Fold this protein.
Amino acid sequence: MKIPPVKGTRDFYPQEMAVRNWIIDGWKKVSIRNGFEEYDGPIFEHLQMYQIKSGDEIVEQLFSLKDRGGRDLAIRPEITPTLARMVNQQINSLPRPIKWFSVPRLCRAERPQKGRLREFFQWNIDIIGVDDVLADAEVIFCAIDYLQSVGLGVNNVVVKISSRKMLAAVLRSIGIAENDLESLYAVLDKRSKIPTDSFVEMLKEKITDADIRKKVLKLMDVKSIDQIGSCTELSDAAKQSIDELQRLFEFLNVMGVADFCTFDIGIVRGLAYYTGIVFEIYDKSGEMRAIGGGGRYDDLLKQFGGPAIPATGFGIGDCVLGILLEEKGLLSKQLSQQKFDYFVAYTDEQFFNKAIEIAAKVRLAGKSAVFGYKSTNLAKQLKQASTQKALNCIIIGQELSEKNELVIKDMATGQQQNINVDEFFRQIRS
Amino acid sequence: MKIPPVKGTRDFYPQEMAVRNWIIDGWKKVSIRNGFEEYDGPIFEHLQMYQIKSGDEIVEQLFSLKDRGGRDLAIRPEITPTLARMVNQQINSLPRPIKWFSVPRLCRAERPQKGRLREFFQWNIDIIGVDDVLADAEVIFCAIDYLQSVGLGVNNVVVKISSRKMLAAVLRSIGIAENDLESLYAVLDKRSKIPTDSFVEMLKEKITDADIRKKVLKLMDVKSIDQIGSCTELSDAAKQSIDELQRLFEFLNVMGVADFCTFDIGIVRGLAYYTGIVFEIYDKSGEMRAIGGGGRYDDLLKQFGGPAIPATGFGIGDCVLGILLEEKGLLSKQLSQQKFDYFVAYTDEQFFNKAIEIAAKVRLAGKSAVFGYKSTNLAKQLKQASTQKALNCIIIGQELSEKNELVIKDMATGQQQNINVDEFFRQIRS
């Protein structure tokens, strides 16, 4: 009986697994050098966890299930709610600031398409306990540090940055009521993703006052932070949030990554829980979805039953990133097929068991070793060694029984040398 | 609103995550040096995948869900069905033997207890395409290689080995009908897990003929491979399977791990798909569940719609293993808290931005660096550096503005030295 894989999932054969490991190892390395520690939570949580603040889109895409006690669970579509739960659980014992990262497997029942699958891996970086925009700059730096490390430079990627706090304050100055802000964000977030006339139509439904709508459209057209003031008279809160945005760009400049960053008022983010700086990372040439994004979410821990503690972070998935790396030819350069240190061969069947013994000892000494399962002649074994990309071949023959020596053949140069068995193991152990 | 984690799951705070990473990295390292390549599949499969051959216990413990099209899915309780599916899908292009490993996250709705959780990680090793018992010996060697590498020696652990093929052949010789074998395995598998009289009662229900029952009980009492022949007259098939068992032990001896291994006719395995050698690994002193187990499953690929290809492998979970390592004091020795290479401090607030710039450059150069978010005096910063276990402190002050020098303080010795900025970056890059 042949059963297919589930739609929108991936099988990781060794070649794809090597790519996945290479991407995830890179995330981990950059996280650690930026001072973050790894955490993880369960693959599922109580369903309610995602009904609090994740936003409608996420809730619609949940893979939900029941445990044996009939409780409603869901496979995690993001890890931030788990992070909030975990931090709240140990809020009194965790030293702050909390700088944590994770590389969770996540599932969303989306329509599978290029760069969007039902199961994916996502790098998450979060700083909890720092209200200063310096923390936002640091998480953005961290994303850029990774992108640079894999060869994606200023010509390839751009970080588009805005501020929900600024947007809220300016929209209030323009005349949008507090209660209408959240649903308006959802419309504004669509701006770059749908045709202009559709966007204007959606905005008309949302904002009936033509004067206010005009101001909002003008605001969404500003190209720099300086232009924001030209749309309306700014409240003190609006001015303060603009200063904060400017400070963020100053920090990014100090960190040497300003060239990657640009202000873009169209960045609003789909998730409901953002409260301050928001950003998304894009491929410069393509029309792909965002590589990743993030922002400040100062109210989330409180909404999950904890104290009010500021937080900021981002998520970068492996799907769009993987496509981009592939397109830019940045994968093949870095990945080569697994190689083994030694293939253990024998000149005659009488040495078969000895070959297995030596292979076992090589492994116990910490080096990789393989051998053929079926006894065959030496020429065929050397061919196997070559097919399996062994770096060296250990040949077991009369040299062993007569002189306690192994013959080591360098598979690249073809050169052979004899070495005393004990000396050989001394060498590979050190 | 405070929501608890789901029963039977674990939160991995940085400390627990370090343990998990250390265990899984060890699995990966040993797999690679034994010549295995990593693969992985999706977290869920079509529900049917687990109804084919996993056995009743697994099916009862499935976390099942539906996708948006209403199809029945289940979170993977084991990865072998996925392995069978993946191998069958590419059976014509994969070079054989296939030596693969995986470290999947698995979920089973079991009653949570010591060493048994609803979500866990399991190391899987499989060799597909080798019918020789040498492959079974190799997977057993691989498990022992890992156990030894983390400090679990012959005094701590034992690999108990038997053969389903031998058991089937001898039971047939005794007079058990072919059709009764599978359900009898389930009873025999319980033998060491329940009181003797309960076992005898279960056996009475299963085997009504007192003479046959007596022979089965006698068989289950044999202590060595040599004694099997004393229970009944052996068929040729039985003799052959006994020879195979003996060859397995010879190979284990050649590989230098015979001291870890013992024949135990009580090892039957719960999973329904085993066809040959079966084994389980136990803590020698404790009364814990098996650390892991495995065996040969020559019919599985065929049952999943592929060709008849022999296969053998094992699974070792992280729960019982983790408890054992903890009890033996083998975790703390190997794990230390994350340390940072550099804490970047400054003597005066005017150098705050410069400190951030230097920290960013250190990270881009590949070393880990942290800094304080709030400007404060140097003494407090040095205390922070010490709390955060920084190995060195970079102190930014007038030396930088006047002489382009950094002050580097070794946090262990307290010694300070000045170094030219460019020279410093040259050094850490190399």
In short: Residues 14-33 of chain B form the longest helix (20 residues). The two ends of chain B are 51 Å apart (CA to CA).
